[in-house]
Amino acid sequence: MIGLAQIGLHNAAAALGLMPFAPPDASSIAGDVDRLYYLLTGITVFFSVLIFSIIFYFMIKYRRRSEDEVAPETHTSMALELTWTIIPSLICVVLFVWASALYVQESRPPASATEIFAIGKQWMWHLQHPEGPREINELHVPVGVPVKITLTSQDVIHDFFVPAFRVKKDALPGRYTSLWFDPTEVGKYHLFCAQYCGTNHGDMTGWIYVMSPKDYAAWLANGEKTESMAQQGEHLFTQYGCIECHVASGSGRGPSLVGLYGQPEKLASGEMRVVDETLIRQAILVPNSVHVPSYQPIMPTYQGQLTEEQILDLIAYVKSLGSQERNGK
Amino acid sequence: MSTAIADVHHDPVESNVNYLNASYGIKSWLFTVDHKRIGLMYLAVITFMFTIGGVAATLMRLNLIEPQGALVEPETYNKLFSTHGIIMVFFFLVPSIPATLGNFLIPLMIGARDVAFPKLNLLSWYLFVTGCCFAMFAILSGGVDTGWTFYPPYSSLYSHTPVVIMALGVFIAGFSSILTGVNFVVTIHKMRAPGMTWFRLPLFIWAMYATSLIFILGTPVIAITLFLLGLERLFHVGIFDPAIGGDPLLFQHMFWFYSHPAVYIMILPSMGVVSELITAFSRKKIFGYSFIAFSSLAIAVISFIVWGHHMFVTGQSVYAGLVFSVLSFIVAIPSAIKVFNWTATLYKGSISYEAPMLYALGFIGLFTIGGLTGLFLASLATDVHLNGTYFVVAHFHYIMVGGALMGYLGGIHFWWPKITGRLYPDMWARIAAAVVFIGFNLTFFPQFVVGYWGMPRRYAVYPAEFQFLNIMSSAGASVLAVGYVIPLIYLTWSMRYGPPAGRNPWGAKGLEWTTLSPPPTENFDVPPIVTEDAYNYAHAEASHV
Fold first, then answer.
1. Is A276 within 8 Å of A268 (Cβ atoms)?
2. Quick one: which of A105, A301, A303, B443 has the most CB atoms within 10 Å?
3. What pLDDT, in 10s, does the model give residues A21-68?
4. CA-closest candidate to residue A311, choices A281, A290, A289
5. Inter-chain residue contact A44 with B242, CB threshold 8 Å
6. For residue A305, what are the domain limits?
7. What digits encode the pLDDT tens for the residues B451-481?
8. Based on the structure, what is the number of domains in chain A?
């Protein structure tokens, strides 16, 4: 029913040369978000029409007929007050549960998701595939493969927004956030920055290209051959001297990083932290804040020496060490 | 109908000495401690500030006619929307009803001679004007481009505009809010006339009381937040920018801890005004007095714990999101209760449609849409899509313009005869109310659609497929602008040429209508004694004077 109405609207709008009612549905959750949106629209229309009709009816029926007219007194009815408190409350409960269930689903990327990194900077998006290709204001992904995007910012707060996928997340300086989507329709979709970030905020836009697996493979093959992020991270690990202390065998002045990713680690402060992107980043930039007991807090900070891209490469390298160990066992 | 009012209630004997002509000269205004004169001085200043904010909005809408920008460079556009937001929120909407109608009416409505601290009241006005001067100085020296939300690290370390001067203006004006809040709370507690018990208070007073609580509890937080922002910007103290050890989300928590309750600072007073208008023009006791009164307090309290719904997409934890979502749904309920009670008040009433009533009915309609579209944003999954788009812009303009501003205009029209002692041409006022209503919907309804489509806010340039709806919106804005200019003309005209109003041109209940129009400096010749509930319209013999 709703689907039919929507198609009707699309056609009518197309005939008029206007925009259709909703943006394209191009991800696995877009349809679910739309259904919730239509329910909310229905509730809004129903209550607006109800209240407007009652007001218009009263306005006409009870219009003042003479200047000295006295209105009869009516008394507050507890039953009415309870009715119009409880019914909206119940509707809110339904909306809360529905919307929250969807939100929880939206915030849990599937384990199979490929990971892509996005760095926002005034005023462009830098996107990085783990296999190595880098893109500016464009992202190519194959249809039907869930994608997790890890976001950060090099300067101010940005926001990664793809209306066709109904997803959005802030890109914050100094930390990592993430979103995921499972593109279902081949096509070209808007990417917007949805958090005001300065002069050319309105130009901080791009395109997501959802491609058939064959086209995607061709796109990858045609691209410049680059090393993977982990490989580039490995070079940095040597170049910046990390390898001198973080010896793989664990005999160096710093802890071995092999197999560390995803493990809980007890810090010198007594705090338990899981080794994730944020912790590795913190360890590189503010080492003493996360140093572990049994090692001296002697690591220098790399604040200002590494770009956001390089930090992500290093993180990718540390992550790859984790999987190497698991593979080894 | 307007002529009938003028004829019936005109009482030429009663227009000798009043607060307007008791003394003359600029000093008699600048050093006055009369709450009525201070209210008028606020009216003058905020009308000026509203004009500045309105001009900025007009230029924005003109620019958005073309996808590539019809008028100005992006840099200028960013300054326009920042100016519009900052001026309208901090220098118009927040003080609008409390500082003008609140100041003028609270002592009159509770049967007092003045507010509890008249000199503090004057100090509040000076603080507000000082804040306005800083804001105007910031605008004249180029304007800021941070948006009204001042999010760091953009505002603290990246913007090349006079952010600190603007923030200082908001900071200083905030003290005016705090002092006004304190003054009102004490006045309402201590200055009520004999017999004016809490549950005989007009609902406008309950609304002002709830608003004052938010002034006192919320405003210090925005003051601290902007102070810290200034520290970071001027002295590079790492508070919000992670590059120097700060946390950018800390600012957002602190900012919205004030700024969400501030939404209710803007809407609660209008709700109070609407309760007065609906009862007066349907000659009915309000339906559900205590439900409306307590819903104001409930809103004031709950509004302090919903700020996180501005931050659903910042990466705050899923659990925090769930908690803030459920609390945001809860804060919707008291507002719904109010709408239902106002509607029920009309039942079996004797309804007339002078201009203030048209504004009140317009308020109910637009506030209903504004409130219901808030549910889209309290719902987590839809908020993720709509957050930061024009849908949000449309939603809060339905609340702040369709709600707060309609209530303000309704209130100004309702009490204008009391304030000035003159009547304005009601037909013009009704036309203006209709023009505002139509222009408003034309402006902001298309923004719901373009927002769902995904157009982000604060874009100086935008993809071409959004142009049609933007042209509609801009066309509506020009209608809306006409709707604002008309009252400015006839209200100004009426101050000199309007027929005398008499004490009670609407046949309304409430102590303010029992005294002269304009009232004498001491408000009442004889201190009133209250013997009946508010809105006692069913017993009409005492109402017409």
1. no
2. B443
3. 688 999 999 999 999 999 999 999 999 999 999 999 999 999 999 888
4. A281
5. no
6. 229-328
7. 999 999 999 999 999 999 999 999 999 999 9
8. 3
